[in-house]
Every structure is written in C-alpha cells, then in structure tokens.
C-alpha cells in the first residue's frame, strides 16, 4: 500500500430529485452535490441510477444516451477533479448500436476508472438496454470497490461474488421506485430498501453504500433512503427522505471490525454443496 492509499475513506451518498429529460439542470445539481461532498471531506460520492436524465427515458434514449466519454461524463469528470474526489454515477451510455444502464467511476484527478454495465435488468429495462456481462471490482486509492446498479442488489449471489472478488466496499447507484399499490399493499418503502442494503452488508461482511433518487417521476416516487452501511448491517449515515448528502468514515482494518468478523463468520460457514 502506498502513502496515497487510504484504508479509512469518507464515503458520501448524494440524493436529489432528478428532472426527467433536463440534462443541464441535473448536471448543475450533480455538481452542487459533488462540491458539498468534497467540502464535507468525502473521498467518494455516489449518485443514483440514470442521474443525468431521469429513469423513464425509453422513448428518448436515442437522444439522451451518451458515450462513456461524452459531454455529461466530461462534465462529471471535471466536477471530480475540481473537488479532488472520487465520483460514481449512474448514466445511460451508448456503445455502437447498444445502450447500457451504466455506472461510471471517476478518480479525484478526473480520470474515468471504470464503466460498469448493469448485469440484472428489471422488467421493461430488458427492452431498453443491453445486458452487461461482467462483475466488476476496481482497485482504487480508497480500497477495492465493487460496482453495482439498482436491481443487482436483489441478487445475494451477485453481491457475494463481489465480496469474493475482494471488494472492501460495494457501491450501488439505484432508483428504487414505488407507487401507491406497492407502498400501501406490500410495504415497498424507503425503509424497506434501506433494509436491503443492510442485509447485503451483513451477509457478506462488507461495507455497502447505496445512492437512490427522491421525488416523483411518471406516477412513481423514488424512495430515497440513500445510506452508508457497516459490515454488521449498522446504518452509519442515511439521507432518509431529504435531498442532500449523507456521509460516514469507514475503517477497513479496525480492531472492532476484526472482532465483529470473528463472530460473524457467515461466509465461512456456508455449505454450498447442500444448496
């Protein structure tokens, strides 16, 4: 480990109401949130899925999907460099004839470190996007980061794969949404999605940071509750139902964490030959 590498990064999740089909307005807000996270001392800030465009853009993808080094990515790289902060953000990207629901990770010098393409597509997304086919864990100066988007978090085997690949931290850019039926009949609420992040952290013994949107879009509401979660499932920071950032400082090597992992031997105790 070099002197520039941190094992105690401060990680922020940013939460805002994305304006559908208004890239300029969204980029302005994204820049503000990245500056706020940087001013708070964060080493990494995570923003939600399709944060530059809004989620319901299937009929506009020809116009709104950009390349991984297009104008929006260039702007975000500039925000990262100006704040000397890592930035992860969800965007629709185009590669040739294909469009992907992607998560871009930028370093504090503005370099794009990774482009992750969503592996698990939900419902109508299968008609909008091409599937990604790579589980991705990236070495950075703030540890090994496992990348994921929204629905990926529903699949315990997939997050387990990121942990097995050595992720210190799993990040998730999401846009968990709900309508009245889902909320009132089935309890699909902000607290439920926060519990999902807690469970993935607990069962894998890894840090998890999930960034969600907030507010209405096309008859649905983004559920918020962006959060940073410890390997025990303890919520260290949550944006709840507010716009803004929530942040926490992680410690990958603390004595307390080693003591917890000595008790919580969940991965070692698995018996996959029976499953």
UniProtKB/TrEMBL annotation:
Gene3D superfamilies: Carbon-nitrogen hydrolase (3.60.110.10). Keywords: Hydrolase. The keyword Hydrolase applies. InterPro entries: Aliph_Amidase/BUP, C-N_Hydrolase, C-N_Hydrolase_sf, UPF0012_CS. The keyword Hydrolase applies. It comes from the Bacteria. Residues 9-252 form the CN hydrolase domain. One of its GO terms (molecular function) is hydrolase activity. Belongs to the carbon-nitrogen hydrolase superfamily. NIT1/NIT2 family. This is Carbon-nitrogen hydrolase family protein.
């Amino acid at each position: 480990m070099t002197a520039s590498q941190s094992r105690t990064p401060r990680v922020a999740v940013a939460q805002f109401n994305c304006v559908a089909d208004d890239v300029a307005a969204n980029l302005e807000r994204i820049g503000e949130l990245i500056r706020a996270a940087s001013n708070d001392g964060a080493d990494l800030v995570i923003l939600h899925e399709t944060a530059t465009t809004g989620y319901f853009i299937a009929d506009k993808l020809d116009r709104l999907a950009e390349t991984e080094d297009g104008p929006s990515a260039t702007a975000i790289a500039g925000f990262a460099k100006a704040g000397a902060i890592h930035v992860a953000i969800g965007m629709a990207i185009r590669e040739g004839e294909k469009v992907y629901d992607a998560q871009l990770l930028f370093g504090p010098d503005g370099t794009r470190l990774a482009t992750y393409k969503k592996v698990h597509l939900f419902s109508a997304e299968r008609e909008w996007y091409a599937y990604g086919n790579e589980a991705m864990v990236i070495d950075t100066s703030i540890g090994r980061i496992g990348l994921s988007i929204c629905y990926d978090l529903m699949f315990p085997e997939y997050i387990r794969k990121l942990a097995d690949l050595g992720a210190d931290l799993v990040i998730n850019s999401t846009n968990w949404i709900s309508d009245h039926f889902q909320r009132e009949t089935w309890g699909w609420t902000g607290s439920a999605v926060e519990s999902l992040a807690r469970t993935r952290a607990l069962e894998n013994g890894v840090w998890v940071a999930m960034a969600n949107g907030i507010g209405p879009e096309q008859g649905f509401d983004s559920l918020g509750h962006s959060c940073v979660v410890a390997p025990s499932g303890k919520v260290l920071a949550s944006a709840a139902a507010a716009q803004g950032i929530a942040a926490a400082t992680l410690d990958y090597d603390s004595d307390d964490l080693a003591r917890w992992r000595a008790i919580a031997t969940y991965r070692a105790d698995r018996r996959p030959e029976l499953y």
